[in-house]
Design a protein that fits this description.
heterodimer, A: 659 residues, alpha+beta, Four Helix Bundle (Hemerythrin (Met), subunit A), 5-stranded mixed sheet, 20 helices, B: 168 residues, 10 strands, 20% helix, globular, disordered N terminus, disordered C terminus
Amino acid sequence: MATVDLSQFHKTFFEESLEGLDAMEAALLALDSGSADHELVHTIFRAAHSIKGGAATFGFADVAAFTHVAESLLEEVRSGRRAVDAGLTDLLLRSVDCLRAMLARTARGQPVADAASEALRIELTQLVAGEAAPAPAAAQAGATAVDGWDIRFVGLPHLLRSGHEPLRLFRELQQLGRLEVLRAFVGDAVAADFSTLDPGECHLGWELRLHGAVARPDLDAVFEWLDGDCELAIAPLAAVEPVAPSPEPAVAAPAAAREASAAGHADGGSIRVGIDKVDALIDMMGELVITQSMLNDIGANFDLSQLERLREGLAQLERNTRELQDSVMRIRMLPIGTVFNRFPRLVRDLERKLGKQVKLELHGEHTELDKTVLEKIGDPMVHLVRNAIDHGLELPRQRRAAGKPEAGTLRLDAHHEGGNIVVRISDDGAGLNHERIRAKAVERGLVPPDQPLGDDEIAALIFEPGFSTAAQATDLSGRGVGMDVVRRNVRDLGGSVGVKSVAGQGSVFTIALPLTLAIIDGLVTAVGGERYIVPLISIVESLRLPADAVRRTAGGGEVFRFRDEYLPVIRLHRAFGCADAVTEIGRGIVVVVEDGGQRVGLLVDELVGQQQAVIKSLEKHYRQVQGVSGATIVSDGSVALIVDVGGVVRLGRCSGKAA
Amino acid sequence: MHENHADTAPTVQQLTFSLVGEEYGVDILSVREIRGWTRVTRIPQTPVYVLGVLNLRGAIVPVLDLRLRFGLERESYGDNTVMIVVAVAERLFGIVVDAVSDVVDIDPATIKPVPDMGAIVDTRYLKGLATHAERMVMLLDVQKLMRPEDVETLDAALPDVRAAEIAA
């Protein structure tokens, strides 16, 4: 048999194991919340079993050993010999965390076991063993009166075909105790004629002896999936044997060597793509090829009579291209559920820590968004959820006093809105304390004391840098580095975050994100001879103002009345230094944009149209430019700049002060 | 004479171009293409000599005018205006010049340091002077052209750098 370099599968193993751990965690949380579904236990067990098997195959002995004890514990639960209680799920959840850390260390090639994992492993072992001896360490096996098993294992011919590998089994057995191979033999069923022997069939059998205080269920677990693929006979070791210097175990796992090679795996990141998405791509590619050959055909002998056909062909090409683009983008799309999934655990931990009761509701887990956005949105969301539980939701007795149910509700909701994905985090807690926020903002000099502010404007202040109202910082939130970081992270993704709050009824944080970082929907505007693209997500409204609608303020700035508030006007031609632009406000168009709760009006000459813009970086060949988030290529092949609304607002503020 | 040198010593090939009657050279290895004038998109908050950006096969590439870089004036941009696209450390940018002349071989041994000319040309952006066909060719240091002003100011503030410049 050719030796296969197993290290090439390490990455897959890590990915699958992490997925398995996620599944375990989710199932444990479901158990914890009172669900008695037996299938959940099976799910947890299967995940642990796969990780153990994989780890043993790849020679990650520490991971395998750890998972093994966890699995033994799970087996007891599965067979109904142990009841699930809070202590048990807690222990298992901690084991999940520990395994994650161990896998991470394995992937980096660092020493895998540490004091924490050892302690946890011993805790698990003791729980499993109950009255029996602790870990079946090989060194101990000889000292105590050895118990053990005689195993006769004969593979049926189709054993290998169904994907089983005896070597792996032996390794797993080795994890349980010292394994001795008494005899390996050729099975009875083997054909006498060598020429008719099928090399894909298994005709081997082994007589094995496993030393150590191994529980029968553990042993059964090893052979669990071999049912029907082998003949198996397991008998307890007849007599207590004197410790004999037995030969080295037949299979020695060269664990150390393997781990070294694991260190070098590249961290490029990969995406698992559903077959349906790939099939859709191939279909579209096929259509594109047909369209292309049709256009070729028209081009080969073109005369004006075929103009209509050409037009049709081009329209078809456009449709194909757009569909292809959508599908390619969709490959990078993952459901937001992968981020949502970490919240049940977080909420559970916070509940315990803070003595609050939280009912978590998740909606729209299947909403898909770009992988890059997805990876970066996790932390801001964690922060908002923590805040909601720490500051938003009240303690049970306070809630009772306020006439609310004792358990607070935290709702995460994701859905598509236009070209964006909107994530809402809402709680039915106390809501923001507007007076306190205002007082704090005045104290910090963020707003002048006499400035009239609406509730929403006050609420938006919590996103200002250095703002935190928590009277005393807890280790969860309230260190003053919170909300502004959230806003900055969301902004970096091209999104926006806002909050609405009603005292006594709760708060709603809304994060709006682009579906992808590569393409935005934009409004093309003209200023002077230039084209500027304003991201559609930040546009509130576009309007033509009467010339007398604009007032000058004392500082030289210009404001106009929009609904119930006065908004500053930023003349884009001045901010960007464009000549020949419309300077009379009455003759241009004012585009009201919003960034992080702050609204301003941008003066442009006219609106040209709406366009999807593929964002190109200016920094790649030049450098960052304030007020510009990137560039794109418009239909005539020239370059148009994409307006960074936040940057322009800041620019406008600076120039307003200077003026 | 120069052809003889080519056999014996390694030569550097320079693309020469003219600017206000003077002849300049850029290392041919950094040149990516030569193209006619196309309208560029202006970008805000940039020095005057950065005319804007253009679409070079999907890449957004800045364009600078060498006349403006040297503090001179340019009357107009039109069909005869030429742009040399160069690459420095994988960054592309276009340089607008008056006209492209030739590709010449220059023996590195004949390159002279730049004296302080004090005149129209800012000597900071020159690597050296070479002679080709009895004409002086000023070898341009393209790397320095695109450096932000503040870096230059910082350079100037460092005494040892200034000393080196004076020595040069």
